[in-house]
Structure formats: structure tokens, C-alpha cells
């Protein structure tokens, strides 16, 4: 047989094998991410990660011999658009489940849609209200802001800092964080002497910081997502404020350091472990998953995999796990998600139940600090 004939025969065989491997219809997974707009620093790595993981799953033979098909829409961070696109995913695209949206406000807006249509949603947002109280069809992968607040307050308690000033963004994420900061203060012996907000598009917060500088605050807690917190870091630096500045997990990526520049030095915040994966002990049950994710993302996108892309990695892998243990119908996926135990993901070790659709404990967070333009673990 000539080489040319052999090559054509082999190619035809490979194509037939590939087609037969995915002879059944694909399992459609919907995704809503803020790929553009102010929250693009969340949505872009989430979209990239979801595509990467699903491509790898399909290359390895899919799930139960069936291909996963990802249908992604860009919400641009707009809650109204998110609702419209969620409806499109369910009615037109006939997806079996949805991952996302990227922000708390969008997630809260989409919840009534998925609950009514009985389609499982795995949100990539952090607001506690997304899953508290429990909604039958709604789960999440981002660590709860309630856990993040606890992690910050534990550190303040350890340092004997009991008087704080709050500066929170006036959106869904900021409102949820502010609620938790106020609700948990008493438990940790914390007194709040200043409680101020800023707008998501504000470009100068010197007025709020000047007010805080005149208070007796021993620490400042800023709650928001980029770029606002980076502006606050710069403003505080410009004003010569030496009061310790804590941020939320909403900025736990290298992007924050890039935006804040020298003003980021010394800032602390609670973060998922992926930011410091290489610094974790080998005994950490998450370390293997974290390093694999970071390596994969670097290979595909020439950038570091971060905390936010990790939320999408967890969402896709949790869905894969649920389908493998059951079927691809929305009802089966929902049931198996709720029975997930000890799933070692990027965001933490997930155990869902009928009473807990967030699935993580406070060990999902480490406290990190910016030192020499990089993240280190605070002991």
C-alpha cells in the first residue's frame, strides 16, 4: 500500500472513530460570564477556563462517551441582559445546566428564572444571599463573603485591632459584604466607627478616606471588585494613610497588584488558595488540583490561572462529576450536585447538601498579603 493511500485510509478511519465516539447528541452546558464591561476581569478568565476544561474533557472522550457543548454568552455585567440570556439558554439552546453569572447582582436576578424553569445553576459569584437561604436549583463555587469576613475579623482579633472603618461598593457584592461585616462585628468584638460607600464607577475616594483618617479606626476594610479597590489603595497612599488596609476576596488576582502598583504593598485580604498554590504544603488536599489548573491555564493563555477562573473550573468539574454519577437531565444533575461530598476543587473542598448549596468551610480561604509585588501567605 502506498503511503498516500495509507494516509487517506488512516485519516478516514480516525474521522469515523471520532464521529462514532460522539454519536449521541452533545450535552449542552450554558454559561453566562461578564466577558466585557467593568467585571471583565472576572468574566474573561471564567470564560477562558470553562472553554479550556470542556475542550480537555472532550479530548479525553467526553462524559459517558458524549461530548460536552459549551454555549457562552457575554452579559457585560448587566443584570437585565443576564436574565434575557439565561432565558435564551433555557428556551432556545435547551441547556441541561448553567454556570455563572460572574457577579452577585446578576446571579440574584437570574435565580427566579432557573428556579421557575428547573434548570440547575452554579453561580461563580460570592454573595451569601445566592444560596442562603437555600434555593432548590441554585449552587455556587465562589467562597461566601460571610467566610471572607470571618477570616478578616479573626486576623484583626489576633492583632488586637478592634476599631474599624468600612468602605464598600454600592452594588450587589458590596451590599452583601457590608451586611456581613456589620452582622459579624459583635461576635469578634469589633466596633465600626465609619461606614461609607463608593460607586462602582467612582474614580476618586479621597473624600471618604479623609473622613476615615479623622476617625479612630485602627484598620480599614474595603469591599469591592476592581478597579475601585485599586483606586482606594492609591488614594490612601497619596494621603499618607498608614492605617492597615484590608480588601475583600473580590480582588484576589495579580490584576489588583498591577492596577494599584506600589500602593498595593502590605495590603491584606482573604483569598482562595490558588493565588499561592506553590507555597502550600504538599499535605494540602487541594494542592494537586490547584497546580494542574495554574499549569493548564498558563499553557493555553500565557497567563496565570487565578481565583476567578477557578470558580469556572470548579463549576464545570462539579457538573461533569454529577453527570457521571447520574444522567444529563436537569433533575438528575441537580440531585447529584446536592449529594456531592469531598470534591477537591480550586476554590476549596466542596460538600453540598440539602441545607448547604455553597459547600465550603472557612478553610477554603487563606489570608494573603502583597509583598514585593506578589502574594504571600500571612502566617
UniProtKB/TrEMBL annotation:
<comment type="similarity">
    <text>Belongs to the leucine-binding protein family.</text>
</comment>
<feature type="signal peptide">
    <location>
        <begin position="1"/>
        <end position="23"/>
    </location>
</feature>
<keyword id="KW-0732">Signal</keyword>
<dbReference type="InterPro" id="IPR051010">
    <property type="entry name" value="BCAA_transport"/>
</dbReference>
<keyword id="KW-0813">Transport</keyword>
<dbReference type="InterPro" id="IPR000709">
    <property type="entry name" value="Leu_Ile_Val-bd"/>
</dbReference>
<dbReference type="InterPro" id="IPR028082">
    <property type="entry name" value="Peripla_BP_I"/>
</dbReference>
<protein>
    <submittedName>
        <fullName>ABC transporter substrate-binding protein</fullName>
    </submittedName>
</protein>
<feature type="domain" description="Leucine-binding protein">
    <location>
        <begin position="26"/>
        <end position="371"/>
    </location>
</feature>
<dbReference type="Pfam" id="PF13458">
    <property type="entry name" value="Peripla_BP_6"/>
</dbReference>
<dbReference type="InterPro" id="IPR028081">
    <property type="entry name" value="Leu-bd"/>
</dbReference>
<keyword id="KW-0029">Amino-acid transport</keyword>
Amino acid at each position: 500500500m502506498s503511503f498516500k493511500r495509507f494516509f487517506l485510509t488512516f485519516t478516514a478511519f480516525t474521522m469515523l472513530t471520532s464521529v462514532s465516539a460522539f454519536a449521541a447528541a452533545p450535552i449542552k452546558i450554558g454559561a453566562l460570564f461578564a466577558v466585557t464591561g467593568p467585571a471583565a476581569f472576572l468574566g474573561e478568565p471564567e470564560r477562558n477556563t470553562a472553554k479550556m476544561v470542556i475542550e480537555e474533557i472532550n479530548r479525553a472522550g467526553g462524559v459517558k462517551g458524549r461530548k460536552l457543548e459549551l454555549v457562552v454568552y457575554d452579559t457585560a455585567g448587566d443584570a437585565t441582559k443576564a436574565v434575557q440570556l439565561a432565558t435564551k439558554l433555557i428556551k432556545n439552546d435547551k441547556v441541561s445546566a448553567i454556570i455563572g453569572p460572574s457577579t452577585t447582582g446578576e446571579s440574584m436576578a437570574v435565580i427566579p428564572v432557573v428556579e421557575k424553569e428547573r434548570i440547575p445553576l452554579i453561580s461563580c459569584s460570592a454573595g451569601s444571599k445566592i444560596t442562603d437561604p437555600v434555593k432548590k436549583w441554585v449552587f455556587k463555587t465562589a467562597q461566601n463573603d460571610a467566610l471572607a469576613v470571618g477570616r478578616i475579623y479573626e486576623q484583626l482579633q489576633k492583632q488586637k485591632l478592634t476599631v474599624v472603618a468600612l468602605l464598600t461598593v454600592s452594588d450587589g457584592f458590596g451590599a452583601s459584604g457590608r451586611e456581613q461585616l456589620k452582622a459579624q462585628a459583635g461576635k469578634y468584638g469589633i466596633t465600626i466607627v465609619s461606614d461609607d460607600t463608593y460607586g462602582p464607577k467612582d474614580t476618586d475616594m479621597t473624600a471618604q478616606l479623609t473622613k476615615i483618617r479623622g476617625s479612630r479606626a485602627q484598620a480599614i476594610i474595603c469591599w469591592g471588585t476592581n478597579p475601585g479597590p485599586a483606586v482606594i489603595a492609591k488614594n490612601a497612599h497619596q494621603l499618607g494613610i498608614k492605617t492597615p488596609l484590608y480588601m475583600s476576596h473580590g480582588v484576589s488576582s495579580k490584576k489588583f497588584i498591577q492596577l494599584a502598583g506600589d500602593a498595593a504593598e502590605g495590603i491584606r485580604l482573604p483569598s482562595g488558595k490558588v493565588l499561592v498554590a506553590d507555597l502550600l504544603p504538599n499535605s494540602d488536599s487541594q494542592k494537586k488540583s490547584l497546580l494542574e489548573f495554574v499549569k493548564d491555564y498558563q499553557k493555553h493563555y500565557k497567563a496565570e490561572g487565578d481565583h476567578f477562573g477557578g470558580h469556572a473550573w470548579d463549576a464545570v468539574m462539579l457538573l461533569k462529576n454529577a453527570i457521571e454519577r447520574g444522567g444529563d437531565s436537569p433533575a438528575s444533575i441537580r440531585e447529584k450536585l446536592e449529594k456531592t461530598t469531598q470534591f477537591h476543587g480550586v476554590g476549596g473542598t466542596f460538600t453540598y447538601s440539602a441545607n448547604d448549596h455553597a459547600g465550603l468551610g472557612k478553610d477554603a480561604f487563606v489570608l494573603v498579603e502583597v509583598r514585593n509585588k506578589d502574594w504571600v501567605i500571612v502566617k
